[in-house]
Structures are given as C-alpha cells and as structure tokens.
Amino acid sequence: xxxxxxxxxxxxxxxxxxxxxxxxxxxxxxxxxxxxxxxxxxxxxxxxxxxxxxxxxxxxxxxxxxxxxxxxxxxxxxxxxxxxxxxxxxxxxxxxxxxxxxxxxxxxxxxxxxxxxxxxxxxxxxxxxxxxxxxxxxxxxxxxxxxxxxxxxxxxxxxxxxxxxxxxxxxxxxxxxxxxxxxxxxxxxxxx
Length: 192
Prior knowledge:
This protein is α+β, with helices and mostly antiparallel strands. 45% of the residues lie in helices and 11% in strands.
C-alpha cells in the first residue's frame, strides 16, 4: 500500500464531490481523528480481524488545518483486503473524518445484526486498488541524466517547476507538495 498521510492519496476508483456541503457535525479535528481510530479499533475487536497499515490521508499539514481540498481517505488492510473509505462531501476536514467514523460504526452495526459475511460483502465496495505509485524524485524534478546530479541541478529544476506547480500560479497544493518532497529526497540522496 503506497497511500501517504500527506498530501491526500485519493483512490482512483472514487469520483470526487464537486460541490461541498455543510454538515451538522460539531466535532473538532482532534476529536474526529480520535473517533476514527477508536471506531476502527472497536471494529477490529468486534470482527476478530486486525486492522493493519492504517493511513489517514489528507491535505492537512503543519500550519494548514483548512486546506482547499478537505477530502480525507482512510486506507487500511482488513481480513486480507485493502480498504479505502474516502469522503470529501463536506467543506471541513473534520466533518469528512467524522463521516468516516460513522461509516465504520455502520459496519459494526452490520456485524452485530448480520454477521461477518455481510461486512465482507459491504467492504468489497470499499476495496481499493493499490494507491497510485509515487514518482521518483528524478521524474518529479524532470532530471533525466543518469550521471551525477548536483545541488544546482536540483535547485534549478525545483525553481523552474515551482513556477507551474505553486497554487498561487494555477498549480495545486498536491503538485507543490510532490515537488517539495522530491527536492528533499534529491538533496538527501546526493548528500547536500
């Protein structure tokens, strides 16, 4: 599973919601995170099957609690299935997280009243294709030489591509995050 916490890793099989709506949830971000983790823990306990490789993916990062894309995708492995519950219906990240909590709670209700086979059937709808593969830093920075790469090569490529990737000039948060990650990885690899 190549899902990452930041930037948002959205499943290819799920369409995005173009028009966000307000929710009636009154849960803050930290409480919603706690609710998702707790409901998944209870789900695991109820089913007798581990929830492994949990990744809560969003565009929330240090200093950006209100990203322009408030979608959240919760990726995990359960009973041999890679599952992704992704919600972007609401305008706030915490509301999308809280919705995911309620979806997991609904699976717990199904288990209590219908059994494990019903939950397995329901989760087939959430079965995720593998998360999109991350591109190497060379691909992101468009550095095609197989020879030695210098700090100047990396910085030059970064500046050139940032002029297109930055959200202020028509790019996106995800594109800029990918570019920042590539620069960091490149500099680390070349020992700069």
